[in-house]
Amino acid sequence: MTHTAGPSFVAPASATEACLAAITAAELIVGTDHDFVVNLYLALLDRWPDEAGYEHFMERVRDKPEERPGAIHYMAQSPEALSRGRHMPMPDPLVPGDPQRALAAQMDLRSSFLFARMNELKDRPKSEAADPAIAPLVRELRAEMAALRREMREELAAIAGRLTQPPAAEAAVPAAAAREEWADLLSLAEARMEMRLRALERRLP
């Protein structure tokens, strides 16, 4: 899938505070290069990446996962992050967290940002809301996002259930194969989440 930078809009400073407190650096570095850059901006700057920033960080981390800790540190020291009082503890060494927990934390970060953006649109003064269709659109998008969050949590729980079930003795699966299946299941869940999140993001005015 080809990814491009999303719209350059800024949410209120408190939009993702709760999710920032919940997501860790170890969870942030899990996933695709695209997801890492988007989530890095949301976690530390509380906004979607602008095109130049997106390309800069993608160039830095593309196919180089070892560069992700440095990118987090670099972003955290930026004037914009410092002005927002953002801080993300960085253990040394920084190793990727549990994939399932990381995907859930990233889902909460992304969807909470979109919820905040929807609330911002809904609460605009009437003089600024030129499009009378904004209110119904926001209601529709909020319902879709709530459904997506619920479905993703159910899917993650189902994946966890499959992986923790003890296999029958005659059908024992080697640990490496189980890990590979886990990665495949999480990748499918992440791909579905990504497509639907991007579809919702594109519909925001």
UniProtKB/TrEMBL annotation:
<dbReference type="InterPro" id="IPR025282">
    <property type="entry name" value="DUF4214"/>
</dbReference>
<feature type="domain" description="DUF4214">
    <location>
        <begin position="32"/>
        <end position="82"/>
    </location>
</feature>
<dbReference type="Pfam" id="PF13946">
    <property type="entry name" value="DUF4214"/>
</dbReference>
<protein>
    <submittedName>
        <fullName>DUF4214 domain-containing protein</fullName>
    </submittedName>
</protein>
